[in-house]
Specification:
By secondary structure, the protein is α+β, with helices and mostly antiparallel strands. The protein is built from 31 helices and 35 strands.
């Protein structure tokens, strides 16, 4: 299926080859999810859990009242569709996208197999190729759900040569539509000009997006369709004899010139009826020709005759034209080239290049000229036809600019940036000079998007680009790499001190407040710096090392710059190793849960256990959650891992007394997956655990993004009967405000306050305030990190309800919990 795109997808070029490899991965994932005896996998087994970044490329289709409807779309697909809405029929989408999705989904449903199609999107003379992979799945409510993966390939074809170089009047483009066997069965008109509409004798609005099989125009004839099918996939380019044929349509004869680009056919349509019927007179060929034409003297270069089209197009009166020579319409800087070309002209002439001509108003146009030696009124002359390609050149210039610049900010893009960086490095080698590469990331930009929406974020990025243009001058280059990531090349020989000073000025410039619609928006900037040749001699090495330095700057809180250091590369390798080991660890069953008791102070009994994830690496031993949890969040593994933790913890808790709860920590990433409520319901259902015995712990970071959506999820969980606890209370900047946003069941006092409870009065005051706040709001307070009896006595005196820490027990494996409960009960009975 081939379609025309309404809005170009914003994807970073560096991921294209990686994304293309996603198709076989998704096909294997689908095949692996098919259960014995069933022909389709369940939706949850394919589309939930571990899609990670691929989720942005998925559109979910379901059948509603006999019509396919969009149930869910990822962000990439929303850009492709130019529509962020869900729950709407395919007929409400742009017709090009709707046709592509319909074809892929229909074939997948019919064959009960993944179906891969290629979609070719036409925009500004470029054909952009997309993979469209439809994955049919079984819905738990019956019926079939189809998840469709969409992503762009690198391949692009330029149609401008076909569209603009044609001298015939009609131009249109056809997209081949393939059937279930993969054969071209039909064609859809995805582009046409008014000339084509006139020749086909139907309005352009009726022809656009129309299938040829619908009939009503000469192209629908079976013989024509068969000829067109022969061009599909042939790779034929050009309008020579092999790409032309004629068709009779009543009393008219049309000539078709065909150019093929895979499944895309570009057609030029000419009405050659008159040429077939009689020899046209000179008046028809010349005077009434819509193309500018003239005859000039081969010796003197004087104009001997001009047609009406030339008079209208160039603006000179006929009398003035006939008093001029060719040189007077040539710009002076091309006189020598024009004269040399004329000396080499034979009997037939065709431009080997485009020329510039001067119109009567002084404007310059770009033209192609075609000539033939003729005898005119007894004089040796040339008959010349002129094709104005000024718009074509302007379009090509725009496309060239677009190919090298970011569409939002108009800054150079990644490709242009890397090209300029390579040029700067090449120049620096001869003079043994240094080149500085800076990677820039905006601090708090995500908060602007989340708080005010993406339109506000886009306007902010434009203002950031303006400030970069003010700071970056001369031969230096500033570019946008994607999102809120920017980069700079300082091409002049710079010292580390000069690069540092520039980075400080840059951070100050980007951190100054921005005024947008009366609002004052403040973001910061972090900068990573790499210098050649010490930090690398290639653009790839310098970019990678500057990016690692940026990561260090971000990890230090942002608002600073950092130079690359060799140990960063070692850390990056360590990170890559951990990512690889993490993926293997989940499939190899290397994770386990340990449980730390929560002790009710007043009752002197264990009221519950907090489940804590542990990773037993086969070579490196026990790895701290502080090391691997952030990595699991970054690579998209935390959602599947979190679901596993929920299931394991609930199943283990069923072995404990009925009055003992289990607490599970939730990652903010699990909220973004939008599958959290279903995961909790599933864990409770499979284990049989009562919802009142499950406690979910969250941190304030859950409230920092998509607050309304996350609050809605928390309320849904609360309605199930699950308890919600605020972890690390008091360490965030707005913890109190969150108590107004949501009725928490418990707040946990951070261990940093408990540690110095007996030595620092401020810690005691904070604990006293939190405990009092809990009593006033009827919220349980739990103190973490209790290690001494003195700390326990202070907490008891301040009215704290629960405690946990090494004073009672470290986290223990599940098989030790029964003994721990017995030992604690025996100790309590002796104390009584």
């Amino acid at each position: 299926m081939i379609m025309a795109n309404k809005k170009s997808a914003k994807t970073s070029a560096k991921f294209n080859s990686e994304m293309f490899a996603d198709v076989p991965v998704l096909q294997r994932k689908w095949q692996a999810a098919v259960r014995p005896g069933e022909n389709l996998p369940h939706y949850e087994d394919v589309m939930l859990g571990s899609l990670g970044r691929l989720a942005d490329h998925i559109v979910l289709l379901r059948n509603v009242d006999g019509e396919l409807s969009v149930s869910h779309t990822g962000r990439y697909v929303q850009t492709w569709l130019n529509d962020e809405r869900w729950d709407l029929p395919l007929s409400a989408l742009p017709p090009d996208c709707a046709t592509a999705l319909t074809e892929a989904a229909a074939n997948a449903r019919e064959n009960c197999r993944p179906y891969l199609a290629s979609a070719h999107c036409v925009r500004d003379g470029l054909v952009r190729t997309f993979d469209v992979l439809a994955l049919p799945t079984r819905s738990r409510w019956g019926g079939i759900l189809v998840g469709v993966y969409v992503n762009e390939r690198n391949a692009q074809y330029n149609l401008l040569d076909t569209i603009f170089s044609a001298t015939d009047e009609g131009v249109l483009s056809l997209a081949a539509i393939r059937d279930a066997r993969g054969e071209a069965a039909d064609f859809q008109i995805v582009h046409l000009n008014q000339g084509a509409a006139r020749l086909l004798m139907q309005p352009a609005t009726e022809l656009l997006w129309r299938r040829l099989s619908a009939g009503g125009n000469p192209l629908a004839a079976p013989a024509v369709m068969n000829r067109l099918r022969g061009f599909v996939g042939s790779g034929f380019v050009g309008n020579g004899p092999g790409g032309q044929f004629e068709i009779d349509s009543g009393d008219r004869c049309l000539r078709l010139g065909v150019t093929a680009f895979g499944d895309m056919l570009s057609l030029t349509v000419s009405d050659v009826t008159a040429l077939k019927q009689r020899e046209l007179s000179f008046r028809l060929l010349f005077e009434n020709n819509p193309m500018p034409m003239w005859v000039f003297d081969a010796g003197t270069m004087e104009f001997l005759s001009v047609n009406d089209a030339a008079v209208q197009h160039y603006g000179y009166s006929r009398e003035r034209f006939l008093g001029m020579t060719l040189r007077q319409i040539w710009p002076e800087d091309e006189w020598a080239m024009h004269s040399a070309a004329l000396r080499e002209v034979g009997d037939v002439y065709q431009s080997s290049r485009d020329w510039r001509h001067i119109k009567a108003d002084g404007a310059e146009i770009h033209v192609l000229t075609f000539g033939r030696r003729v005898a005119f009124e007894g004089r040796d002359g040339y008959l010349v036809a002129v094709v104005d390609i000024t718009e074509r050149r302007a379009a090509e210039a725009r496309i060239a600019h677009m190919a090298h610049h970011d569409g939002l900010t108009n800054l150079p893009n990644r490709d242009f940036y890397q090209e300029r960086l390579r040029e700067a490095l090449e120049r620096s080698r001869s003079g043994n000079r240094r080149v500085a590469v800076m990677c820039i990331d905006l601090d708090l930009f995500k908060n602007v998007n989340d708080s005010f929406g993406h339109p506000m974020g886009d306007r902010l990025l434009k203002l950031v680009a303006e400030r970069l243009r003010e700071v970056v001058r001369d031969d230096n280059v500033a570019a946008r790499l994607g999102g809120d990531e920017f980069a700079i090349v300082l091409a002049a020989d710079v010292s580390p001190n000069e690069a540092s000073a520039f980075a400080e000025r840059l951070i100050d410039a980007l951190s100054a407040p921005y005024k947008i619609d009366g609002l004052e928006v403040v973001v910061g900037a972090s900068v990573g710096i790499a210098l050649s040749p010490g930090d690398g001699t290639t653009s790839e090495d310098l970019m990678r090392n500057a990016d690692m330095a940026l990561y260090r700057a971000k990890s230090e809180g942002g608002g600073v710059h950092h130079f690359f250091e060799p140990e960063m590369d070692q850390q990056a390798q360590k990170r890559r190793d951990m990512e690889r080991d993490l993926r293997a660890a989940f499939s190899n069953g290397e994770f386990e849960l340990h449980y730390q008791p929560l002790v009710d102070i007043a009752a002197d009994r264990i009221s519950g256990f907090e489940s804590l994830l542990r990773w037993q690496h086969p070579q490196k031993g026990m790895i701290s959650p502080a090391e691997f949890i952030p990595v699991a969040e970054d690579i998209g593994l935390i959602v599947a891992l979190g679901e596993w933790v929920l299931r394991e913890a609930c199943a283990e808790a069923m072995k404990w007394p009925a009055d003992v709860k289990v607490a599970v920590n939730l990652s903010p990433v699990q909220f973004r997956s939008r599958n959290l409520v279903q995961a909790v319901i599933s864990a409770l259902a499979h284990s049989g655990l009562s919802a009142r015995r499950l406690e979910l712990e969250i941190t304030e970071s859950v409230f920092l993004a998509e607050t309304e959506a996350n609050l809605a999820i928390l309320h849904q969980l609360r309605e199930l009967g699950v308890s919600i606890s605020m972890d690390d209370f008091g360490t965030g900047y707005s913890s109190l405000s969150y108590l107004r946003s949501f009725p928490f069941d418990k707040i946990k006092i951070d261990r940093s306050f408990v540690k110095d409870l007996a030595r620092r009065s401020d810690c005691l005051a904070i604990v006293r305030a939190i405990s009092g706040l809990g009593r006033s709001l009827k919220i349980t307070t739990t103190a973490e990190g209790v290690e001494t009896t003195d700390q326990l006595d202070w907490l008891r005196a301040e009215g704290c309800n629960e405690v946990q820490g090494f004073l009672f027990s470290a986290a223990r494996p599940g098989h030790e919990i029964a003994a721990l409960l017995r030992g604690f009960a025996e100790r309590a009975s002796k104390a009584a």
